[in-house]
Amino acid sequence: MDGQRRAAYEQTFQELLAVVARLDGLRRQGQGGLEPMANAAMYATSYAAWTLWHSLRPGGVVAPIFGDKGDKYLELAREWADVGCRDAAQAEAKAVKTLTPAWDSMIDP
Description:
Blueprint: H1 3-29, H2 36-56, H3 70-85, H4 89-107
């Protein structure tokens, strides 16, 4: 990989981490967290950053907070997207109780 491409990947990686941090900050602020599709976006962005990190790892880029759990983020993104597509507050409440702790346990060891 040439230096110009590597620099572009590193910048993109940092931008993806910033998006994850913004969404996670919003999730932690308000009562009730994020809307299901916003949660799905947070996890999908985490997966994208994790995937890109694997291209950069040999160059010394520091591992993201989510380490080597990328497949779990993809699974969480799918589950939240499914919740967002269903028409039921009950489904969202159940997801908040089960999926949010899964995210917290991965980033807050």
